[in-house]
């Protein structure tokens, strides 16, 4: 493994002193601030206001006015298409600044950051395209009578984001909600707030009607206030399964609509004598890309027992060849983890894996020459069993586990022996067999001889990986209520 040794000199980030509430920049309710911390140095880069419950109340009041009496839910699809195009173009104009902020705050190499933000643009493009033909009304024949089925916006939507891709995840959630005619209140995580404030500037430039959008960086307590708020009709949450259970319980108290995209422990299954060059790079990058901080990462490598040593040696060789270091340096493959507590979490799981009897094949420590920031070496465990915590729990770091199997049915069983079901992949020269295995794995998306979370199609999880779907027409549908009008 290669490491860069110089202390990175990060570009300055801009501080903000106001919150974006109801489409306008307003003074926050308190003087509390969130420090934007560089993942690669641990030093503060900028400051933004920390939203409080009072700011949430103001945002909900503005959103309720927009929904109950304002024009947005009553606009035509063509009018919303025009508005979404303005948002998309305003984001594109700020794309470079968003990439820099994301790389500085969260530690993603610039190439990874650009891929994330280009995906955000694709999500706005896709919802614009979907709105051109989406059926908000249709007639159905019931016996000799005709009824009219009407799909109406669900109401005010509270959106709670993780830190590992805030602008992309915001776009995944905001674009369909706005396409459906819903005002939105977005609560980003306190880690990495600057890129979201830049998104707020793009939303201001798009000139949406008053009250339609608010952006409120804050911590968990403020998020819970948003979830509990009687003025919010639906919550869309992405984050850990533990936090998602809490959100779901709070929504249940008032039967609020909820969409949850939660954790994952996805399996990459290698079925047969496929040459290493045909799967190795994809399999490894799907596991440790963005330093493993991706919910859909393939962190369990399910491989034939007779090939475990061969594949493990090849994975170690590939991991050792990666460059870990400054996210702004040319050639960096892996940046730091996003926060000190995240690195502590990864270290804890590595200790657990060793105590449980898994064999540490490589990594498992902080890079010796990177003594500032939250860096960790890409790590591989072999001889992992399904009973081990490192095979069952989401680490959210650059830690891969190899689980060997003897038969195809055992491989399917290993993949399904999980509380999660978000993503997956099957690698095989026999595509008929690969499809059979893909159909047998209980997961929201799975790829044959490749990997990728397609966000423009309905993405979501089985089991404790979540509820509902995001992306595609189903994503817009999650923000609509269905009404039947008869007797016309």
Automatic annotation (TrEMBL):
Keywords: Oxidoreductase. The active site is at residue 261. It comes from the Bacteria. CDD domains: ALDH_AldA-Rv0768. The keyword Transit peptide does not apply. The keyword Oxidoreductase applies. Residues 25-485 form the Aldehyde dehydrogenase domain. Signal peptide: none annotated. Belongs to the aldehyde dehydrogenase family. This is Aldehyde dehydrogenase. It comes from Pseudonocardia ailaonensis.
């Amino acid at each position: 493994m290669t490491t860069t040794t110089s202390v990175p000199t990060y570009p300055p980030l801009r501080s903000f002193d106001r919150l974006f509430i109801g489409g306008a920049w307003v003074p926050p309710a308190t003087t509390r601030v969130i420090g934007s911390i560089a993942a690669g140095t641990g030093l503060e880069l900028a400051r933004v206001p920390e939203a409080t419950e009072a700011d949430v109340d103001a945002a909900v009041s503005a959103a309720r006015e927009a929904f109950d009496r304002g024009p947005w839910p009553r606009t035509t699809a063509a009018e919303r298409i025009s508005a979404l195009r303005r948002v998309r173009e305003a984001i594109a104009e700020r794309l470079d600044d968003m990439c820099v902020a994301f790389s500085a705050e969260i530690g993603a190499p610039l190439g990874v950051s650009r891929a994330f933000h280009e995906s955000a643009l694709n999500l706005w493009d896709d919802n614009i395209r979907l709105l051109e033909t989406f059926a908000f009304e249709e007639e159905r024949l019931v016996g000799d009578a005709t009824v009219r089925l009407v799909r109406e916006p669900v109401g005010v939507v509270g959106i709670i984001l993780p830190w590992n891709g805030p602008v992309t995840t915001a776009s995944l959630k905001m674009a369909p909600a706005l396409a459906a005619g819903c005002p939105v209140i977005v609560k980003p995580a306190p880690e990495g707030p600057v890129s979201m404030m830049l998104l707020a500037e793009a939303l201001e430039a798009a000139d949406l009607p008053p009250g339609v959008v608010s952006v409120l960086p804050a911590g968990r307590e403020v998020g819970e206030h948003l979830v509990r708020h009687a003025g919010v009709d639906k919550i869309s949450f992405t984050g850990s399964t533990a936090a998602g259970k809490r959100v779901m319980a709070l929504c249940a108290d008032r039967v609020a609509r909820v969409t949850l995209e939660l954790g994952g422990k996805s399996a990459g299954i290698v079925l047969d004598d496929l040459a290493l060059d045909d799967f190795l790079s994809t399999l490894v990058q799907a596991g440790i890309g963005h330093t493993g901080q991706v919910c859909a990462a393939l962190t369990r490598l399910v491989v034939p027992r007779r090939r475990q040593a061969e594949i493990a040696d090849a994975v170690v060789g590939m991991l050792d060849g990666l460059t870990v270091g400054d996210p702004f340096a040319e050639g960096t493959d892996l940046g730091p983890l996003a926060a000190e507590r995240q690195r502590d979490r990864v270290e804890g799981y590595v200790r657990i894996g060793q105590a449980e009897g898994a064999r540490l094949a490589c990594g498992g420590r902080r890079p010796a020459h990177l003594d500032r920031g939250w860096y960790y070496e890409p790590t591989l465990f072999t001889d992992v069993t399904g009973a081990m915590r490192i095979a069952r729990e989401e680490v959210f770091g650059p830690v891969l586990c190899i689980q060997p199997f003897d038969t195809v049915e055992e491989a399917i069983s290993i993949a399904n022996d999980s509380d999660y079901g978000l993503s997956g992949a099957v690698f095989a020269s026999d595509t008929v067999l690969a499809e059979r295995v893909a159909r047998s794995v209980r997961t929201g998306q799975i790829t044959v001889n490749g990997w990728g979370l397609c966000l423009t199609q309905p993405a979501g999880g089985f089991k404790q990986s979540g509820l509902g779907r995001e992306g595609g027409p189903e994503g817009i549908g999650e923000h609509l209520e269905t009404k039947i009008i008869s007797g016309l």
